[in-house]
């Protein structure tokens, strides 16, 4: 048992344990590498050589080497066809130079020298800037910087339809921008019309690159800078400041209008209400006057002279009742006596009727102003003069 477990290169008996040198004796050292390869080539050469034994050692080695080379070449060719398409990419496969298909992300194999696969990034967004001095519609020069963002949507068209898609996109963007700026005024480009310039440039750029089928899609387009040349920059800054002042004044005026308009509407409403109230009052007064005259009309028809005098006296009483000055015609004829009732009534209480008139003759039922110290006879004579219409 111990003898069978002994290593083949260890000496342990009369017969050697070396499997490569079983027929040789007296040599217990390590095997010769050349001899091992020679024995291996003989065995493999016999298999590839169809069992012929008449050839020499050189021919057998050549046959073995050729077969081994073929095997190695096949293995190398097979392993060289393995490739990986990344997650953000698409592979464009060409078979004998003709488009075959788009390869999805993952591990794939292709026959080398037959298929060719080119991976293209279709998810990343790239940016391309452009700038330059351009002429506006009103013959002014402005400097504009613009940036376009794009990505690849069709990898085959991107690779093989156009020689240089990025350069094509750059030239198309420059052409579209110059066209749009040339159809807008300087103020529109530099101030309020930037968004309009951006939208029109995007539309024009898309229409230019569409026939070329570059496989590119425009994601965004931004106007980074728009300014006049340095020689006129100060004057343009003044113009911009004036426009900003104008906008500020407009905003202030609108704020003032929003503040004043409600007040004005309130005053208008109040004036209209007062006018309506005045209108109603006048209408009611007129209706009252009509009703009063309708009541007096039968009396007037019965005694027109008496009614007319009574109306006259009532009117005089209403007119003179609010006056603080009274002129009295004395009996002498030419002299008038002035009674300063405004001074007299300051210390004297008002009468029950609220005026300074007394009734000299109850039978006449008329009111007349009476002077201080006048006799009842003169009062009656004055009343008679009023009743006679001033005829005496």
- From the alpha carbons, calculate the radius of gyration and give it in angstroms: 64 Å
CATH topology heading of the domain at 126-228: Tetrahydropterin Synthase, Chain A
The CA-CA distance between the termini, in Å, is: 188 Å
Counted beta strands? 10
Largest sheet: 3 strands, antiparallel
Run of helices and strands: HHEEEEEEEHHHHEHHEEHH
Say what oligomer this is. single chain
What is the CATH C level class of the domain at 126-228, in words? Alpha Beta
Which percent bin holds the helix content?
40-55%
Biased composition (Polar residues): 348-367
GO molecular function: peptidase activity
Subcellular location: Membrane
Membrane topology: Single-pass membrane protein
Briefly say what this structure is.
With 392 residues, the protein is α+β, with helices and mostly antiparallel strands.
Structure, described:
Helix 7 runs antiparallel to helix 8 (about 305-320). With about 400 residues, the protein is α+β, with helices and mostly antiparallel strands. It has helices spanning about 35-50, 55-80, 155-160, 165-180, 185-190, 195-210, 235-300, 305-320, 340-345, 375-385; strands spanning about 80-85, 90-95, 100-105, 105-110, 115-120, 125-135, 140-150, 215-225, 325-330, 335-340. The strands form 4 sheets. The chain has a 3-stranded antiparallel β-sheet with strand order 3-2-5, with no helix packed on it. The chain has a 3-stranded antiparallel β-sheet with strand order 6-7-8. It is rod-shaped and about 185 Å long. Among the domains are: about 65-90 and about 95-115, no CATH class; about 125-230, Band 7 domain (Tetrahydropterin Synthase, Chain A); about 325-385, no CATH class. The chain has 10 helices and 10 strands. About 50% of the residues lie in helices and about 20% in strands.
């Amino acid at each position: 048992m111990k003898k069978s477990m002994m290593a083949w290169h260890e000496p342990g008996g009369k017969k050697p344990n070396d499997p490569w040198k079983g027929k040789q004796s007296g040599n217990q050292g390590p095997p010769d590498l050349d001899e091992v390869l020679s024995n291996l080539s003989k065995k493999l050469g016999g298999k590839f050589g169809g069992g012929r034994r008449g050839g020499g050692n050189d021919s057998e080695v050549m046959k073995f080497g050729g077969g081994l080379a073929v095997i190695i070449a096949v293995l190398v060719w097979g392993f060289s066809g393995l490739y990986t398409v990344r997650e953000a990419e698409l592979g464009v496969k060409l078979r004998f130079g003709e488009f075959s298909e788009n390869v999805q992300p993952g591990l794939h194999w292709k026959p080398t020298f037959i298929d060719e696969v080119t991976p293209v990034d279709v998810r990343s967004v790239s940016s391309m800037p452009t700038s330059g001095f351009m002429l506006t519609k009103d013959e002014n020069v402005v400097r504009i910087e613009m940036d376009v963002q794009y990505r690849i949507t069709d990898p085959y068209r991107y690779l093989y339809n156009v020689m240089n898609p990025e350069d094509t996109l750059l030239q198309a963007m420059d052409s579209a921008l110059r066209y749009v700026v040339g159809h807008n005024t300087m103020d529109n480009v530099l101030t309020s019309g930037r968004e309009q310039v951006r939208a029109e440039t995007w539309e024009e750029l898309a229409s230019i690159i569409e026939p070329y089928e570059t496989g590119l899609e425009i994601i965004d387009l931004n106007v980074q800078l728009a300014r006049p040349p340095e020689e006129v920059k100060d004057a343009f800054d003044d113009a911009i400041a004036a426009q900003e002042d104008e906008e500020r004044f407009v905003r202030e005026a609108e704020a003032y209008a929003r503040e004043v308009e409600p007040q004005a509407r309130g005053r208008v409403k109040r004036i209209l209400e007062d006018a309506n109230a005045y209108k109603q009052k006048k209408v009611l007064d007129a209706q009252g006057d009509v009703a009063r005259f309708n009541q007096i009309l039968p009396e007037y028809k019965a005694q027109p002279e008496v009614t007319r005098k009574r109306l006259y006296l009532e009117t005089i009483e209403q007119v003179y009742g609010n006056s603080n000055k009274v002129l009295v015609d004395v009996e002498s004829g030419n002299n008038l006596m002035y009674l300063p009732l405004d001074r007299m009534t300051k210390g004297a209480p008002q009468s029950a009727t609220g005026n300074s008139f007394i009734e000299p003759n109850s039978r006449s039922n008329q009111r007349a102003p009476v002077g201080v110290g006048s006799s009842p006879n003169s009062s009656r004579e004055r009343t008679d003069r009023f009743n006679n219409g001033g005829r005496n």
